[in-house]
Amino acid sequence: MKKKLVLGLTTTLLIVVLAVSYVWQKHPKEMINSNSSQKSTATSSIELNEIKNIEAVEINDSITWGNTVAPYNTRMIFAQASGTPYIIPKGVQVNFKFNIDVQEHVEVGFIDEESNVIYELSDGKIQEAYVHFTPEEEVLGYFYIWNKSADDIQVLNITMEY
Fold first, then answer.
1. What confidence tens digit (pLDDT) does each residue in 63-90 have?
2. Residue 147 half-sphere exposure, CB side, CA atoms within 13 Å?
3. What does the pLDDT look like over 107-132, one tens digit per residue?
4. pLDDT computed for residue 59 by the predictor
5. Is the alpha carbon torsion for 82, 152, 129, 120 positive or negative?
6. What predicted TM-score, i.e. pTM, was given to this entire model?
7. Helix H segments across the chain?
8. Which of 20-24, 97-101, 106-110 comes out lowest in average pLDDT?
9. Mean pLDDT across the stretch 12-26?
């Protein structure tokens, strides 16, 4: 009886390990290496969530978005009202600024349409940010705020100027 129980438990454990291994190989999660200026990926069991904010209002050379909540471990992407990316011409300086209700760890940058980081502009504990870049060639993409804290954050006064 004891041998059958041990054999049954061993078989069940083997089946679980094989099933998890199969799922991991078929569905790896992509994560951005935020400690490097190079674009690279690694597999991880932690999934980065993305939300596209399309509530953009454009007035002259300024675009604003309404105050929003960025859930923890989520990259909030700021798009045009149509949901499409921005085209930033070569040599044009673009500014992106916002406030957070409390000081938290966030990464701010610019990504392409496939969510690859083109420019990482800030990564640290902040309560307000004013970042900018001037591309050396035309780029197509979105500004993003990645909430790396353990809590949801309120993002306020979000503006892009060019």
1. 999 999 999 999 999 999 899 999 999 9
2. 24
3. 999 999 999 999 999 999 999 999 99
4. 87
5. negative
6. 0.69
7. 2-26
8. 20-24
9. 40
Q: How many residues does the chain have?
A: 162
The answer to whether 147 and 153 have CB atoms below 8 angstroms apart is yes
Q: Residues near 110 by Cβ (< 8 Å), separated by ≥ 6?
A: 88, 117, 118, 119, 121, 133, 139, 141, 142, 143, 144
Residue with tokens 């209002």: 57
DSSP class of residue 34 equals T
The residue whose two tokens read 């078929």 is: 26
CA distance 94 to 131: 8
Q: Is 11 helix (H, G, I), strand (E, B) or coil?
A: helix
Q: Position 44: which residue type?
A: S
Which SS3 state, helix, strand or coil, does residue 13 take? helix
Task: Write the CB contacts of 93 (distance below 8 Å, at least 6 apart in sequence).
Answer: 132, 133, 134, 162
